[in-house]
Amino acid sequence: MGTKAKDAAIWLFAICAGISAVTESTAAYWTAVSMAGWLGCYYVWYLPKARRESRKAGLKAVVLLPLYPWYARGLLYLTELCLKTLRLDGCWIEAYEVHIENITKDRYYKTLKTDLKLMMQKKKTLYIWETSAPIPAEFRKLFAQLKNEGRAFWVKGRWPIPRVPGTSLGIKDKYARIGAVIWEGDAE
């Protein structure tokens, strides 16, 4: 489901657990229990599987977290409302949240460029991300071209779902940017 769904689940768990403890609400208790179960699945099954699949696809530094299409559409809609971003036009079948991990500074650009080129082999795919890391110039140019076509955005800020304290430690708020691109496989 992605890290923003994980953040929403943590918030919902904390709120429902607190309500359940104070009011002894059965509904709040079971909501908290189900969120705890979902979070367990996220860390034990979903995240390791996404890492394995990304490595199997040849990606060295990038991890692609698969997203449900309805969730990706909802996140893009929230972003349009809250941050006044461009509405994306284009056809996509799969959606992924892009994460960068396990990369040394001396090999950052070379490894990231290789991974991004591998990702571009998937057609009809939506990629979303939130980062404060620099992106290679050739991909920023490609995003600008796709933005003019209505298939990408790249803006300062963070996703509309607030992060949970202690998560997203690698992202510096001052430099944070979010983006999305619909890769249809026809631009070079």
- Strand fraction: 15-25%
Order of helices and strands: HHEHEHEHEE
What's the domain count?
Answer: 1
Mean pLDDT: 84
What structural class should be given to the helix and strand makeup? alpha+beta
Any low-confidence stretches, pLDDT <50, length ≥5? none
Count of helical stretches:
5
Distance between the termini: 29 Å
Question: Could you outline the blueprint of secondary structure elements for this entry?
Answer:
Blueprint: H1 3-23, H2 26-56, E1 62-67, H3 69-83, E2 94-100, H4 108-119, E3 125-131, H5 137-148, E4 152-156, E5 177-183
What this model shows, in words?
- By secondary structure, the protein is an alpha+beta fold.
- The longest helix is centred in the first third of the chain and has 31 residues.
- The relative contact order is 0.16.
- The two termini are 29 Å apart.
- The protein is globular and about 55 Å long.
- α1 packs antiparallel against α2.
- The chain is built from 5 helices and 5 strands.
- β2, α4 and β3 form a beta-alpha-beta unit.
- The chain has a 5-stranded mixed β-sheet.
- The model has no long low-confidence stretch (mean pLDDT 84).
- It has one domain.
Quick structural summary:
The chain has 188 residues and is an alpha+beta fold. It has helices at residues 3-23, 26-56, 69-83, 108-119, 137-148, and strands at residues 62-67, 94-100, 125-131, 152-156, 177-183.
